[in-house]
Amino acid sequence: MPIQRKYWHFYFIEIIMQVKDCYKIGFVMKPHGLKGEVTISIEDDIPNEIESLDKIFIEQTNGLVPYFIENISVKGSKAYLKLEDVDSTEAATAISKSAIYLPKTERPKSSRGEFYDDEIVAFEVHDNEFGLIGRVVEVTLAGSNKLLSIDREGKEILIPINSPFIESINKSKKRITVSLPDGFLDI
C-alpha cells in the first residue's frame, strides 16, 4: 500500500525496518466500521503513550510496512485506529490478522532489574549446579504466568519467571542464572 504523506522520504528509510529491530505491540483484529477503521489488540508491555503515536509498522509478506495514524482511541486492551490510505472495509480486511510493531529505539528503557520479554530471547541460562542449561527461545504465557521457554539440546524446558528459581538476569552478559531443584530437568 503506498504511503502518501508528505513525509514520503520516511518510507524509504523505514521500509527496510526489520522485525528484529522492532517489538510487537499487538495485532490487527478486524475491520471496525465501513470507512477503513480497524480494531487492534494491544500487548501488555507497550508504551503508555500509545495514543500519541503517529505511525505503526504492520507486518506484511514483503516485511514491515509503515502506516500513518489519522486517529486512535484506546479502550483497555483494544484500540480503534484509522490509518491513512485505509479507506474501505476491503482495505481494512487486507491488513487484518497482521502483527503491529514499533521500533525498539522508541520503547522506554526498562528499569534496573526489569526487562521486556523480547530482550531476553537468546540469553544463556545457567544453573549453579548443572552449568549451561540452554538458551531462551521465547517468553510464553500459561494463564497469568510468564515462562521462559529454553531450548536444551532440542528439548523444551519451561521455567516460571516469577519463581524462586531465577537468581539473576544480567543484560550486559546476556545471561540468566537459576537454581533449579533436583530432578527439575528430568521432568
From TrEMBL:
<dbReference type="Pfam" id="PF24986">
    <property type="entry name" value="PRC_RimM"/>
</dbReference>
<dbReference type="InterPro" id="IPR011033">
    <property type="entry name" value="PRC_barrel-like_sf"/>
</dbReference>
<feature type="domain" description="Ribosome maturation factor RimM PRC barrel">
    <location>
        <begin position="118"/>
        <end position="184"/>
    </location>
</feature>
<keyword id="KW-0963">Cytoplasm</keyword>
<dbReference type="Pfam" id="PF01782">
    <property type="entry name" value="RimM"/>
</dbReference>
<dbReference type="InterPro" id="IPR036976">
    <property type="entry name" value="RimM_N_sf"/>
</dbReference>
<keyword id="KW-0698">rRNA processing</keyword>
<keyword id="KW-0690">Ribosome biogenesis</keyword>
<keyword id="KW-0143">Chaperone</keyword>
<feature type="domain" description="RimM N-terminal">
    <location>
        <begin position="25"/>
        <end position="105"/>
    </location>
</feature>
<comment type="similarity">
    <text>Belongs to the RimM family.</text>
</comment>
<dbReference type="InterPro" id="IPR056792">
    <property type="entry name" value="PRC_RimM"/>
</dbReference>
<protein>
    <recommendedName>
        <fullName>Ribosome maturation factor RimM</fullName>
    </recommendedName>
</protein>
<comment type="function">
    <text>An accessory protein needed during the final step in the assembly of 30S ribosomal subunit, possibly for assembly of the head region. Essential for efficient processing of 16S rRNA. May be needed both before and after RbfA during the maturation of 16S rRNA. It has affinity for free ribosomal 30S subunits but not for 70S ribosomes.</text>
</comment>
<dbReference type="InterPro" id="IPR011961">
    <property type="entry name" value="RimM"/>
</dbReference>
<dbReference type="InterPro" id="IPR009000">
    <property type="entry name" value="Transl_B-barrel_sf"/>
</dbReference>
<dbReference type="InterPro" id="IPR002676">
    <property type="entry name" value="RimM_N"/>
</dbReference>
<comment type="subunit">
    <text>Binds ribosomal protein uS19.</text>
</comment>
